[in-house]
Give the backbone structure.
Amino acid sequence: MTTSSLPHARPPFYRDTRVIAIILQIIFLVAVILAGWFLYNNMTTRLAAANTATGGALTWTFLNQTAGFGISEGPAFRPDESYGRAFLVGIANTLRVGVVGVILATILGLFAGIARVSNNWLLSRLAMVYVEIFRSTPLLVQLLFWYVGVIATLPNIQDAAELGNFGYLTNRGMYLTWIYPTETGRVWNWWLLAGVVIGVLLSWLRRKQLERDGAPGSGVFVGVVAFLLVAVIGYFVTASSAAMPSATAYELRRGDRGTLFEDINGNGAFEPGVDRTLAYVPITLFDGDGQVLVTGMTDGDGTFRFIDLPAEAVRLEWDTPTPLAVSEPQRQGFNFRGGLSMTPEFAALLLALVVYTGAFIAEIVRAGINAVNKGQWEASRALGLSTGDTLRMVVLPQALRVIIPPLTSQYLNLVKNSSLAIAVGYPDMFNVSRTIVNQTGAEVQGIILVMAVYLSFSLFTSLFMNWYNKRVALVER
Amino acid sequence: MATDIRPTNWVNTNHPAPAQKPPASEVGVVGWLRTNLFSGVGNTILTLATLVALYFVVNGLVQWTLNAFWQPIWDNRKLFAVGPFPAAQMWQPAVVLLMVSVLFGLSAGRWGSIMRNLGIGLAALLLFLAIIPIGMQAQQVMAASLGLLLLGYVVGLRFAFASKWLSLAWFLSLPLTFVLLMGGVNLPGLGIRWQFAPMVDTNLWGGLMVTMLLAVVGIALSFPIGVLLALGRRSKLPVVKYFCIGYIELIRGVPLITLLFMGMTMLPLFLPSNWGNPSQLVRAMTAITMFSAAYLAENVRGGLQAIPKGQYEAADALGLSGFNSLRFIILPQALTKVIPAIVGQFIGLFKDTSLVSLVGLLELVAVGKAVIQQPEWLGVPGGVAKEVYVFVAIVFFIFSYGMSFASRRLESKLGFGKR
């Protein structure tokens, strides 16, 4: 008997979808590789023609060469250091403006977003005008406006605009009164660390207890209180017990300036890199007759300088500082000392990024709040929850699920947009990479480096997002 | 006698009391003010504080506007519009404007929806420019454009010509714009050289014209690439899929400015040595197109994901091939859904084109920078930077906000975002 074997017959290979899929992919791969090879080949040919030394190959040795240019702000960088370190300083500057920008933009966006959904008609309209104006104009124009149109037209240092006791605005930068950890603050840091550990531990225990009892709440409150308690106790203990290093010494030059430092190697002279400088320590300068000339405070780098002293200082006494000190900017000739100083470039970039991103965040916050159904409020009210509990346990968790994903992408945008620093000359990663490229001609390598760093930022963000989405995803049937 | 028996099922036969009017404090202006501004102590304080802040802001703005020095902008209006384009050949951009106006009018009449909203905006702008004394000839061009726009609208409304002809006209208008602005065709690689006017180098193009051109080209050229990338990302073939994911995520992970610098310096490297170097405008367009394609792909993917599976199955059941089911069933639905997103992307791209000023193209922001540095304004106290950048921002705002407004009106009409 011959039974029909037709249903089991395999189709000819050229009609088998599995085979076709493989063939198509091979064709695609070959095309991509050919195109890539074509581009790469052209590039090496042209590079070889332009630069006979390397024969067109991409080399990375330039990263170890001496940079020969300085970087005006961020981590200290001297021209005799390498291109590689210059690039790292650029990354640090990108992160600096990025982190501060993200924090401030979140605060601004949160306020504007809440104002946008406020019952108060005037306030919500005002927030809307802010959002629409800053969302509908290019960031670059805003940045140039702040930099050239606003900050550059501020008064110069001699007649700086005062912000009460909080600082000064000048066209050379902003100088703000700021709180800094001092020399003894280093001891206090251990207390803070202990506070964090104790706080986390207690909040974890509290959460376990709450879960066991079936009570609502997360235990965060207990943890925060514990941390604050440890921090405050630690502050007073440190303030009363901490002492200055026994090997404290000073170097006084020209009768008005110098450095306060811990003499690590005991030779009595200040050696940068070996001896440790002492930050924000109260000091008093005396002249030859033992008269007090001036009292003040060292800077963050342990240096001090006073101008227009009536006589030359010959002796210095120091005091033990409290763990935190308020540093006010002091006008000294053509500059300010102390406080928190921001260059005009940094200030303009930060202002532009914060105001621009804040407008986008406001819209995200608004959408998040509106996304929570009115019935949710009413239902939790019916269950007898207070307004605070309703917000904390019902509305916010749902709003955050809507808010967080676009919010992180706005954070990422802020960091990417900080590359506009090149328009005002703030030395961020991209700007530094352009300087390196212009000096070394390592065009391709420079682009690869910058892209790799930005991509790793994106990667970390999307890893976080995946983790978060998994955590807050709705559990469905 | 028990005659005085009341019926047990008593009914109130009195007319009900006439409904009272709501108290005057709850309706009308007073009521509106009470609910929206003074509905409580906190709200009242908030209102008053906002009013005080508003007074200072508005007062400051008005004072500044009145005292600002607007001369540089008025004197350089041609520069802001088209950059250093040769004055004798201004008729070429004028023809482009006329052409675009006709097409806008026809599309507004024929297609309606967003084209109609955008057409209204364009008409208002043309009317404004025709009225203010920017120069006799320019005003005549604006008025003629307005006339053509309205004519096109009427024609589009009255005659039901095939929609594909209009699409074709839009499609052809882009290369035609380039030919018109250049004054001819010059492709040395293909040995073509033809001109009807002295050739205008693309480095002489500038101002709003280049800003617009970059944004339009960015969206138009990235459209086919973006659709292919979106389809590729949903492909079942892993090699294709991961290539597309890699491209999209790579581009979306880096700032546009890195791509622009890459296009400026590396694009010539990637071409064979005998092809010469493409002009700066072409390099910028390539970078912007590469950038825009990745974002467009994600938008289109959103549309594709919104198509129910049943549509694919129904197309299969009808015996359509993979290509035909995409062409007739899936893409038409997916692309209609993502029109608002694409308009949003166009607005973003329009703003992002300001970055090309950093790589040496004379678009709007770069023209602004050049105007600030003109020697005539050196003596102006405080400089003219504020005025110039405010003006540039206003131009961007008018177009961006206008487009987003048109798109939002359409969305609320179609009921998008209300689900």
Q: What stands out?
A: Chain A is about 55% helix and 10% strand. The first helix of chain A runs from residue 17 to 50. Chain A touches chain B through 56 residues (CB under 8 Å). The radius of gyration of chain A is 30 Å.
